[in-house]
Amino acid sequence: MHEDERIARIEQWVAEFQPVIYRAAYLILRDRSGAEDVAQETFIRAFKALDRTDPGHGARPWLYKIAVNTALNELRRRKRESSAYAKVGEAAPSEAIASSEKLPDNLRVAVICRYFLDLSEVEMGSVIGVRAGTVKSRLHLARKALAGDLEMAVER
Amino acid sequence: MTYETDVRMALAVMAHEVDVPSDLAGRTIAALRAIEPRQRPTFRRWAYVAVAGAAAILMLVIGTFVAVRRPPPAAGHSPRTNQYSAATGGTTNSFVGANSDAGTSKSGDAVAGQVGAVVSGGRSSAPAAVAGPATLAPLPSIVRTASISVRVKDFEKSWKDATDVGPNDGGYVTNSNTSESGGQVGSGTMTIRVPSDRLERTLRDLRELGTMTALATNGNDVTSQMTDLRARLRDAQAEETQLVNLMNQAGSLGDVIDIRNQLNDTRTEVEKLQSQLNSYQDEVDYSTITATVFEKGTQPGKPILGTGTLGHAVRTSAHVAVALVAGLLILLGGLLPLAALVLLGWFVVRRIRERRP
Questions:
Q1: B146 and B189 both lie in a single domain
Q2: B11 contacts in A (CB within 8 Å)?
Q3: Which terminus of chain A is more exposed, N or C, with fewer CB under 10 A?
């Protein structure tokens, strides 16, 4: 694919998907700065990957996969470097986010992928890198943990 | 309100509580444009796989071609022929393998030339018909052996003719054995000794029995060994003479007994050295040919295990086992190109799926 063609395609995707990716990254990282980095890094990686692969009409799950993996890598890196970082991070903007923060990372990412990014269980398996059965299991566990808190948060 | 709706609504609420920076898209595009144009790879992964597959197929084709063209093994590598070269030093080898189906006479002439070259470099007793470099003097003593495989149409007739080849050329057959195939004697191996200067002629006679499938000649230079043996023999004989003289001059019975004992040892040594020298000389004078004659479709060189029920059972089992292994190898060889194609197909499908949503 030609350089200009790649840039044009990325520009189109940035306009279409970057806001969603930014917010999903924020939900995962709970940090605006980190979310910005992920939202940019996702498209830079996609731009480089376009040289050797073409997602065609499957750009949405493909970009989400890159975004989620980038966010998870960032999350892991932060945990490795300092556990104190999360404690001094931004305050949750709402109680809803505060309640979702109770979930372990893997369950939280599953919830975000399924109900925010609106990925199917099969797509989620590809994005997170687990089998569909594991996806179902994680969603079930998250449901059990979140059911009460979310109802309260939505009602408020 | 269902759980899923609750979750979606809650996440939507969360998402809209954080504003997307207005300049994020612009900064992203600027960052993309700042990336150095990447050098497009000239050779991609699929190309590597394609080249590897093509190379595998090519190697398989070549390997199959070589395997098909390879003649059956000559019987000349048996231990019997090796015994002549076991005690030798310098070794010269020549090998000629020829396929039978195409250009037999042509390859046969080439073989004759090779043999002639070996022979001409050998014995000083070689006749004038065998051209040799007259300036090479003294000529080395060379023990020559050869093995030849000949495929014939009628084994029984050709086998009888083969047994006559050696004696007709002034030689003799030292041993022979035959083996069965499918209840009939289909192949046999014999060891022929012929005067060294008749080696070429004998090989030619054997070749004319049918279609030659393999020929190997071997020349072991034993000049130094024979020279050493002769020197040691001369010394031992001189010592023997001296001891005889001493014994004649001995004054006491004790001296006579001592000298006699020593003389016995020396004579034993002389006989041993003489025997070795004679053995070498015999090997130099007479070349050894291991000739394998077999009918088409038989495996040459398989000795008869026995004629009873047990022997037959063992033979049958061995044949079945060999056929089974050969069949498996052929099957594997046949499947290899298919496997390469499947691998290529799988890779292409995978790439297509990667590109599709």
A1: yes
A2: 27, 96, 100, 111-112, 115-116
A3: C
Q: Model confidence over A95-142: pLDDT tens digits?
A: 555 556 677 888 888 888 888 888 888 888 888 888 888 888 888 888
pLDDT tops 80 at residue B182: no
Which range of residues forms the domain containing residue B178?
A: 68-222+287-317
Task: Tell me how far apart the alpha carbons of residues A103 and B340 are, in angstroms, rounded to a whole number.
Answer: 48
The reply to whether the predicted model has a pTM over 0.80 is no
Q: Tell me yes or no: is domain A91-156 CATH 2.40.30.10.
A: no
What region does A129 belong to: left with phi over 0, alpha with psi -120 to 50, or beta?
A: left
Q: Rounded to an integer, what distance in angstroms lies between the CA atom of residue A83 and that of residue A81? A: 7
- Count how many domains chain B has: 2
Q: What is the C-alpha to C-alpha distance for residues B281 and B141, in angstroms, rounded to an integer?
A: 8
Residue B184 per-residue DSSP state: E
B195-211 pLDDT per residue, tens: 998 898 899 989 888 88
Residue B37 in any domain: the answer is no
What residues of chain B lie within 8 A of the CB of A36, using their CB? 21, 24
Residues 31-60 of B with CB under 8 A from A: 31-33, 35, 37-38, 40-41, 44-45
B313 within some domain: yes
Fold assignment, A1-90: Rna Polymerase Sigma Factor; Chain: A (1.10.1740)
Answer yes or no: do B124 and B195 share one domain.
yes
Residue of A nearest to B27 (CA): A40
Q: Strand B91-96 vs strand B142-152: parallel, antiparallel, or unpaired?
A: unpaired
Q: What value of ipTM does the predicted structure carry? A: 0.76
Closest partner residue to B7 among A51, A56, A150, by Cβ? A150
CB-CB under 8 Å, B3 with A22: no
